[in-house]
């Protein structure tokens, strides 16, 4: 019998592990419950936060007003039901039972012995209990219990639902992590505070407890008085009446100031130390949500100019540089810059968590150092074969190496200067005309209009475009299917979806022309 | 028309690329360098002269025809490049000076020092990169038109027989009758440049001496030149930024 149960469990565990449907569902629930980067998680969090606030609202309202039975039912049972489902799902996704069974089976097979069912079950229970005893899980469990309402004291346990907010609001978690970084200092402070409270409570109780003029009746009141005084709040409901008592008060007030200033400075220093880390985490999170990213590797003079121009065009830019000074400079300009090594695989896989296929439009290796650019290119190529890489070339002897590393486009400034000079010397006016077309500051621009299905429906032939009416020069048509540019095409040229019109004109006129192309042709 | 000498100050990669680009235009290409960079291969066929920034240029004045020469200031040290430019300008009023600069501050100083044209390397490189990203197709087309050795070219043509256009305004002329030529802009005699469809170009007829910036195939441009005038060569004295 035991053997049969073991066999069934093992088979079932293997079935679950290999079932893509099951794994997909589990991954989905894991993402929605635990993965902050999952785009739909925020909607789930908002829903849960709404339920929590609704519960607290009912609790507050109930103090002095009658609550509708339906709302009470909703609060006690429906909300609790949601919390229960959430709790069970968290318990499910937190550890994999099937994995534990398979691991045990493989281990036992390796040792040539029978499957140890008890050991496997023990490991499963251990894994689940280790989750259950986590403070967050305890809060979750307490927030579920629906009988709060019946027991008046336990009703206050609804406030545990508020503690669940820790799960859904990141700033709470941030605060906790900041305070946790100064655990030792806070522990020291706490011990000191306890000693001060205890000593002063004993002293004041001994000195004033028997004095008929004193309002101090019990040791509990002495502790209360000590805490109120130490915190510098001082309600004044209990005041010392003897000289000895007043002396203790002076000591405790001085200690209170010290405790407060020490704890304030602790919190401030913890935040200051963690600030850069938080900013970096925030940037990484922001980057995870971006698409069509231009990844700039290296922030030197060319990169600065390029980034400035791309920013004007509202492109998503992410800068990586191993030099903290350059990163800080980029941050000062308001860019998303990270102090990660562009040439390290860890920068992309472990730190940035970026997916080149879905998120990156182009990588620009703009260090003024060919070795660094080649190194970065090879790193990126090892992660993704397809992403478009553009690199700066500083010494032409390295051109082949850059190509070999996998760079798609190489920019060699010296060669550019040579080409520019040739044109400048030969045809300066023409050169200036083209330069103006390329420059952003010029009123006349060259633009690309991609032919869409709608444009084809309205204007199938070049001759139909009527660009002259919009004061636009049609330089030519780039035919995608042929990967070729047709200069000044004839009127009978048939356009296809994906082709690109290259037009020159004043920007507003080009925009108007483009708008017109998407409207129905006038008869 | 060939200019007699191209003087390249700075024997480095920039200088070499410039020399390769202009050696068909100028009869002589001479490098002037303070020191010879060990890392650069020395071409035995090139003329390299050692110079000092304190030189008074008297020797240079005697050996070349300044009016038909051009100087490229491409020294790697920004301050020296500016000093060289001002030194050349102080001595040669009519020499065409083209200089390179690595930042905007130097661009301004080089212009003040008397350079006719300054090429801002960083900005130009960034412009090219941005254009490649933003408008890859048009960037390639313009690059091919300007630099590649293909038949599609851009040319500046001086109008010599404007009477063939009658009273037609440039924007109204059907340029397609000229074998598929596209006219992009016009530079008038008063040096004001206009886009072909600008309001001014729609109201001002062409006159002899105006320069048309045209794009077309080499053969078509040559035909067009025959019909309306001739190639306008660089007028450096009027052309500076």
What would you note in describing this structure?
The complex is a heterodimer of chains A (523) and B (241). Chain A has 523 residues and is an alpha/beta fold. In chain A, helix 12 crosses helix 13 (219-230). Chain A is extended, with a radius of gyration of 35 Å. Chain A contains 24 helices and ten strands. The mean pLDDT of chain A is 86. In chain A, helix 16 (324-332) links the parallel strand 2 (316-320) and strand 3 (336-338). Chain A has helices at residues 2-18, 20-34, 41-64, 69-94, 97-111, 117-132, 135-144, 152-155, 159-163, 165-168, 170-180, 183-208, 219-230, 243-289, 301-312, 324-332, 345-352, 356-359, 370-383, 399-405, 413-426, 428-438, 453-458, 507-517; strands spanning 293-297, 316-320, 336-338, 360-365, 388-392, 409-411, 444-450, 473-479, 484-487, 500-506. Chain B has seven helices and eleven strands. Chain B has helices at residues 13-22, 58-63, 78-91, 104-113, 121-134, 136-146, 218-228; strands at residues 3-9, 26-33, 47-50, 70-73, 96-101, 117-120, 152-159, 182-187, 193-195, 211-217, 229-231. In chain B, the strands form two sheets. A six-stranded parallel sheet of chain B has the order 3-2-1-4-5-6, with helices on both faces. Chain B has a five-stranded antiparallel sheet with strand order 9-8-10-7-11. In chain B, 44% of the residues are buried. Chains A and B meet through helix 15, helix 21, helix 22, strand 7 and strand 8 of A and helix 1, helix 5, helix 6, strand 7 and strand 8 of B.
């Amino acid at each position: 019998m035991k053997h049969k149960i073991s066999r069934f469990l093992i088979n079932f565990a293997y079935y679950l592990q290999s079932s893509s449907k099951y794994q997909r569902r589990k991954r989905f629930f894991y993402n929605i419950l635990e993965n902050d980067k999952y785009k739909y998680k925020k909607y789930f969090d908002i829903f849960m936060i709404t339920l929590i606030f609704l519960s607290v609202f009912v609790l507050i309202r109930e103090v002095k007003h009658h609550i509708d039975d339906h709302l009470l039912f909703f609060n006690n049972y429906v909300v609790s039901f949601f919390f229960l489902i959430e709790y069970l799902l968290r318990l499910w996704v937190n550890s994999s039972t099937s994995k534990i069974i398979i691991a045990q089976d493989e281990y036992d097979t390796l040792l040539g012995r029978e499957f140890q069912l008890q050991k496997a079950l023990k490991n499963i229970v251990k894994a689940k209990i280790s989750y259950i005893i986590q403070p967050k899980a305890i809060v979750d469990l307490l927030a579920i219990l629906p009988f709060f309402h019946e027991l008046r004291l336990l009703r206050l346990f609804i406030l545990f639902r508020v503690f669940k907010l820790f799960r859904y609001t990141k700033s709470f978690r941030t605060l906790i992590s900041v305070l946790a970084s100064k655990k030792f200092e806070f522990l020291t402070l706490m011990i000191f505070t306890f000693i001060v409270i205890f000593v002063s409570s004993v002293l004041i109780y001994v000195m004033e407890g028997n004095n008929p003029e004193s309002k101090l009746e019990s040791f509990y009141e002495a502790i209360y008085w000590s805490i109120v005084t130490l915190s510098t709040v001082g309600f004044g409901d209990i005041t010392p009446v003897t000289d000895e008592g007043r002396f203790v008060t002076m000591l405790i007030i001085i200690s209170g100031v010290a405790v407060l200033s020490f704890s304030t400075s602790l919190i401030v220093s913890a935040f200051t130390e963690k600030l850069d880390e938080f900013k970096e985490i925030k940037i990484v999170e922001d980057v995870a949500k971006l698409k069509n990213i231009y990844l700039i590797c290296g922030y030197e003079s060319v990169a600065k100019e390029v980034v400035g121009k791309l920013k004007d065009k509202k492109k998503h830019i992410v800068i990586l540089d191993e030099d903290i000074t350059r990163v800080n400079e980029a941050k000062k300009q308001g860019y998303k810059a990270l102090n990660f090594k562009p040439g390290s695989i860890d920068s992309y896989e472990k730190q940035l968590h970026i997916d080149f296929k879905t998120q990156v439009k182009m990588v620009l290796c703009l260090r003024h150092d060919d070795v660094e650019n080649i190194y970065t290119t090879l790193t990126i190529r090892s992660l993704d074969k397809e992403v478009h890489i553009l690199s700066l070339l500083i010494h032409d002897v390295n051109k082949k190496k850059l190509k070999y590393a996998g760079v798609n486009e190489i920019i060699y400034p010296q060669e550019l200067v040579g080409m520019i000079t040739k044109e400048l010397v030969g045809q300066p006016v023409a050169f200036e005309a083209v330069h103006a077309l390329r420059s952003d500051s010029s009123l006349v621009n060259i633009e690309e209009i991609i032919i869409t299905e709608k444009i084809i429906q309205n204007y199938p032939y070049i001759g139909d475009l009527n660009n002259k009416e919009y004061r636009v020069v049609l330089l030519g048509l780039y035919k995608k299917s042929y990967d070729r540019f047709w200069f000044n095409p004839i009127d009978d040229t048939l356009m296809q979806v994906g082709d690109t019109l290259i037009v020159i004109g004043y920007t507003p006129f080009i925009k108007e022309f483009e708008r017109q192309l998407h409207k129905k042709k006038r008869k | 028309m060939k200019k007699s000498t191209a003087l390249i100050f700075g024997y480095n990669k920039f200088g070499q690329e410039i020399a390769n680009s202009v050696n068909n235009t100028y009869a002589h290409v001479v490098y002037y360098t303070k020191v010879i960079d060990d890392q650069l291969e020395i071409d035995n066929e090139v003329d390299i002269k050692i110079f000092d920034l304190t030189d008074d240029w008297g020797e240079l004045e005697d050996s070349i025809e300044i009016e038909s020469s051009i100087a490229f200031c491409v020294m790697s040290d920004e301050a020296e490049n500016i000093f060289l430019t001002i030194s050349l300008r102080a001595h040669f009023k009519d020499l065409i000076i083209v200089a390179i600069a690595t930042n905007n501050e130097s661009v301004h100083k080089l212009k003040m020092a008397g350079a006719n044209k300054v090429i801002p390397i960083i900005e130009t490189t960034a412009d090219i990169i941005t254009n490649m990203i933003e408008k890859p197709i048009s960037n390639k087309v313009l690059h091919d038109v300007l630099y590649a050795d293909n038949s599609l070219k851009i040319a500046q043509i001086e109008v010599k027989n404007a009477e063939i256009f009658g009273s037609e305004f440039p924007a109204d002329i059907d340029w397609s009758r000229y074998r598929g030529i596209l006219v992009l802009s016009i530079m008038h005699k008063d040096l004001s440049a206009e886009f072909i469809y600008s309001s001014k170009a729609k109201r001002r007829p062409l006159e002899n001496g105006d320069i048309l910036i045209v794009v077309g195939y080499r053969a078509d441009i040559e035909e067009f030149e025959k019909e309306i005038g001739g190639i306008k060569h660089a007028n450096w004295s009027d052309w500076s930024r």
